[in-house]
Specification:
The complex is a heterodimer of chains A (351) and B (131). In chain A, a hairpin with a 2-residue loop joins strand 10 (168-173) and strand 11 (176-181). Among the domains of chain A are: 11-53 and 143-226, Gyrase A, domain 2 (2-Layer Sandwich), CATH 3.30.1360.120; 273-342, Beta Barrel (Elongation Factor Tu (Ef-tu), domain 3). Chain A is 19% helix and 34% strand. Chain A is an alpha+beta fold. Chain B has a single domain (17-111), classed as OB fold (Dihydrolipoamide Acetyltransferase, E2P) (Beta Barrel). Chain B has helices spanning 33-39, 85-89, 93-96, 121-130, and strands spanning 12-14, 18-23, 26-31, 42-46, 53-54, 59-65, 69-73, 78-83, 105-109. Classes of the chains: A alpha+beta (351), B alpha+beta (131). Chains A and B meet through loops of A and strand 4 and strand 6 of B.
Chain lengths: 351, 131
């Protein structure tokens, strides 16, 4: 049976721009317009816009919304004022990562969680099943469009004032009311703009009219990988834990209890057996997800870095090998290619 | 800049989107515009070694874009005389000039009669239209 793909409010715009549309997490999404490498460079050097309306939004509201979420999410929401956001994990009992997400504190008793498209249903079910009286959990994904505008010129091109990372505010962009979040997934300055679904086309047109380059999921992946940002489903998942993934900083293990916290404390105390590392190839070759790392390990994400012009990737290796400059050998379809571990991020633009 | 779509009429084509420019008992091989467009800008060419044997319908190398890797299928059998180092160093040359500077390897044909089984430009473009 053919699977029906969902479409974002911007679908017709993508097609009109000549985008190559591909299935992604149940959605029909643009993988590229002109070309992945051009779009990647537009974001590193100027500004690019991404339709990320496929991502899920879950609203949690009520006098006990904070209590509910504090028990389910790894980071400490008590540290957020209204207008602030944080990167956090939804964890399971063995300490695995059901999803990584950004939690926005809309006001004292109201939170918005922006989650990965592929995990929207699982996240919602998980949280809804644990709902307590005094908390109301709703999947509001279909109500919103989400456009990421990223790059050193992104904020200026949108006519916005600079603001602290992980803050957000209601703004008007060329007449469109939106929630502008100073967040992103590229390692660049920029924002993610949440608007009502029916306003998404007007907002998209306004953003492009300001000289921002439309970018597809292809560039989104190469950008996040250069920035060493993990992708759920590739680098992290329900059977990987925050400590081995290098995401211990998102776990408020000293401040509170949450699902799997005890297991994570044990792993942290003992030290993880393996760690997620970023690496750069020493020889010409493009590492890909699933390729073995010789002497134990596996590539979880890999691509060709448009900025470094060499293969880059992430993968799990024994903890003792997870140090900068440690040599690795990647099995590239039977050919052994040398690489070395690098500090995160793999690439950072010099200011 | 990627080249505009074209399929020169002096070449022979293979259904796996490879071309051959036959000259006596030698041939220069490459991939068609269609292959380069489908993959996107190439970032890696994994070539065979000079002196290696390539076999019609079998892979002799790999080309990769940011998103994907694809085998390069030999349209003809023979021995590798030369690998295009320019494409090894700058794989995007294939997108820019697929039938000129972006050739991949030059071979000495071991079975020249195989040429007769390849498609001419009319047959290849018809194949593209039908697929």
């Amino acid at each position: 049976m053919a699977q029906m793909l969902q479409r974002t409010p911007l679908h017709d715009r993508h097609v009109a721009l000549g985008a190559r549309m591909v299935p992604f997490a149940g959605w029909e999404m643009p993988v590229q317009y002109e070309g992945v490498i051009q779009e990647h460079r537009a974001v590193r050097g100027d500004a690019g816009a991404f339709d990320v309306s496929h991502m899920g939004e879950i609203e949690v509201e009520g006098p006990r919304a904070l209590e509910l979420l504090q028990g389910l999410l790894s980071n400490d929401l008590d540290r957020l004022e209204a207008g602030e956001a944080q990167y956090t994990l939804l964890t399971n009992e063995p300490g695995g990562i059901i999803d990584d997400l950004i939690a926005y504190r809309l006001d004292r008793c109201r939170f918005l969680l922006v989650v990965n498209a592929s995990n929207r249903d699982a996240d919602f079910r998980w949280i809804k099943e644990r709902e307590i009286s005094g908390s109301d959990v709703r999947d509001v994904s279909d109500e919103y469009g989400l456009i990421a505008v990223q790059g050193p010129n992104a904020i200026a091109k949108l006519g916005l004032q600079p603001a602290k990372q992980f803050t957000f505010a209601e703004e008007r962009i060329d007449g469109v009311e939106a929630m502008v979040n100073r967040t992103g997934y590229t390692g660049e300055d920029g924002c993610e703009i949440l608007c009502m679904a029916e306003d998404a086309v007007e907002l998209w047109d306004a953003v492009l009219a300001r000289g921002v380059t439309p970018c597809g999921l292809g560039a989104r992946d190469t950008l996040r990988l250069e920035a060493s940002l993990p992708l759920h489903g590739n680098d992290i998942g329900p059977t990987t834990d925050a400590i081995e993934a290098g995401l211990g900083w998102t776990c408020a293990l000293d401040a509170k209890e949450f699902t799997g916290a005890d297991v994570l404390r044990e792993i942290k105390a003992a030290g993880p057996a393996r760690k997620l590392v970023s690496f750069v190839m020493d020889e010409k070759a493009v590492p890909r997800q699933g390729m073995p790392i010789v002497k134990g390990g596996v590539v979880t994400s890999g691509t060709h870095s448009p900025m470094l012009d060499i293969g880059i990737g992430m993968g799990y290796v024994a903890a003792r090998r997870a140090v900068p400059d440690a040599p690795l050998t990647i099995d590239v379809r039977g050919k052994l290619r040398k690489a070395h571990v690098v500090k995160r991020p793999i690439y950072k633009r010099e200011n | 800049m990627a080249a505009a779509e074209s399929y020169p009429d002096d070449l022979k084509y293979h259904r796996e989107h490879d071309w051959a420019r036959v000259d006596g008992d030698e041939a220069v091989l490459g991939v068609t515009w269609f292959a380069g467009d489908a993959l996107g800008e190439l970032v890696h060419f994994e070539p065979p070694e000079a002196g290696a044997t390539v076999t019609k319908d079998a892979a002799y190398g790999e080309v990769e874009s940011v998103k994907a890797v694809s085998d390069v299928i030999a349209p003809l059998s023979g021995e590798v005389l030369e690998v295009n180092q320019k494409v090894v160093d700058a794989p995007e040359t294939v997108n820019e000039d697929p039938y000129g500077e972006g050739w991949l390897i030059r071979i000495r044909l071991s079975k020249p009669a195989e040429v007769d089984a390849l498609l001419d430009v009319a047959a290849y473009t018809q194949f593209l239209a039908d697929s």
